[in-house]
Every structure is written in structure tokens, then in C-alpha cells.
Design a protein that fits this description.
By secondary structure, the chain is mainly α. It has one domain: Orthogonal Bundle (Arc Repressor Mutant, subunit A), CATH 1.10.10. Helices cover about 45% and strands about 10% of the residues. It has 4 helices and 3 strands. Strands 1-3-2 form a 3-stranded antiparallel β-sheet. Helix 2 packs across helix 3. It comes from Noccaea caerulescens. This is Putative disease resistance protein RXW24L. Keywords: Plant defense, Repeat.
Length: about 100
């Protein structure tokens, strides 16, 4: 559950609220977004992508995110949220003032 996530993974999960419903998110780009926002831990000695993959692995393992791997490299390529997890993500993002949802 969201409440059991370590704080750094909570932030990574909440960041996914930025993306539209049913959007396939490029994990490499997502890793760089997380890095720019200061969400990734100190990654000296590791690439941003490697640390992003570690975070993604943990979110997938906890069934928070659905992700697809590249057959050859076994790296996470894309991810998305199940509809129910997206609702939780949006609710928590609003509750934690992580982002503001503006509707037309």
C-alpha cells in the first residue's frame, strides 16, 4: 500500500499523477524527470537510469506500477498505472498537496 512505501518511493509514485490516464510512460525519461526534481537519491557512481530502474523495480514489486521490460536488455522500458492505482495516486497527490489538478 501507499502508506507502507518509503518516503522516496512515495514521491516517485506521486510524480506519476502528472501523466494522463492510460499513458505509456518512458522509464528512461521518467528517471531523468525524477533526477531533475531531486527525487532520486545520491546517484554518484551509478547512472541516473540505473537508480531509476531500482526505484521502478521496487514500485513494480509492490504492485504499485505496471511496467514492461525490453526483451534484450531486461531494462524497464515503459510503465503505467492500473486504473485503481491511478485513482489512489491522484487522491494522494491532492491530499499531500503534491500537485494541483485543474479541470476545464
Amino acid at each position: 500500500s501507499f502508506e507502507e512505501l518509503p518516503s522516496y518511493l512515495k514521491t516517485c509514485f506521486l510524480y506519476l499523477a502528472h501523466f494522463p490516464e492510460d499513458h505509456s510512460i518512458n522509464v528512461e525519461k521518467l528517471s531523468y524527470f525524477w533526477a531533475v526534481e531531486g527525487i532520486l537519491r545520491d546517484y554518484s557512481g551509478e547512472s541516473i537510469r540505473d537508480v531509476g530502474d531500482e526505484y521502478m523495480e521496487e514500485l513494480v514489486r509492490r504492485n504499485m506500477v505496471i511496467s514492461e521490460r525490453d526483451i534484450k536488455t531486461q531494462r524497464y522500458e515503459t510503465c503505467h498505472l492500473h486504473d485503481m492505482m491511478r485513482e489512489i495516486c491522484l487522491f494522494k497527490a491532492k491530499e499531500e498537496n503534491f500537485l494541483q489538478i485543474v479541470s476545464n
